[in-house]
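Subject: for your reference before the review

Hello V.,

The reviewers asked for a structural picture of the protein, and I figured it would be easier to keep everything in one thread rather than splitting it across files. Below is the amino acid sequence we used in the manuscript, unchanged from the supplementary table.
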Amino acid sequence: MDLANIKKLFEDNAESAEFEFYKDQCIFLSDLYKRYDNDLDNANIVLFYAKNLHLKILREREKDLDYNISFQNFWLNHHKIFQENFKVIRVANETGLPKETTRRKIKKLIKLKILKKLGKKIIWSPPEVDEVSYNKVVDAHIKILTRQVISVTKKLNLDFSNENVDAIIKKNFSFFWYHYLHTQLNFLKIWKHHLDDLELLLISIECSIQGQLIITNKRKLNEENIISATTISNITGIPRGTCVRKLKKLYKLKLINKDGSTKKYSIGIQNLYNNKIFTKETGTKVRDLFGNLFIVILKALESEKR
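And here is what came back from the structure prediction:
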């Protein structure tokens, strides 16, 4: 099992695989946006700290092979693990954010009590009341990841059930979540360099999903291919006024069309294959990134099964 095999699997099922993938990414990014003060740059920074916390938890296995890294034990581990101190430049480099933007966002996250400053050290330490909501959101994301993994295992004729994969991920939570967050961080970094606007990315994804629905005949071609700022706002959580501004930018980038008389935006098949956002280069980077994630996951599942 290697990257070439996974990439071929994605390419052989390109239309359905890409549609499902971006639907899931829309859910993931919308949840992050709503959770971290309606700001995906904030979320990007929190992912950095969370990823490194999971890595520290994993390293406890170097001293104790039976160390409990499960989902159930996560908050106990969180409170007792000694988190590292990171310089602003390290956070900036790994998130793709400018250094001063990173510094400003970290200060905001401290005020929001999502990060905590201990002397000169900054750690991820949300209030206890947020732990329950965090568990609920992550449990939903585990279910999404499980569904994605099952889709891949079926095409590879591997024998795993939803229940089995869900249980293995939760049992070895910090292992899987370290790799998952590492991948999501790199995904956001790709788009930060490409667009420099993660809200625009989220809206672009939702517009692309609407376009794919047209292609797959899940929506009638002559009916309601209108892109509504209100609908996008309701799905993503981004304020309607912001959606209106971003849609204007997407029109300039040729992801959507605009009717000269009604001034309404719409999307057609031609937009999906002729725009400056979802380019062949970025598509290749994203497929490689998540292809490597699935290789790690599938190898871990096979190992656990044995």
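For the response letter, the relevant points are probably these. The chain has one domain: 3-198+279-305. The first helix runs from residue 3 to 12.

Happy to draft the paragraph if you're swamped.

O.
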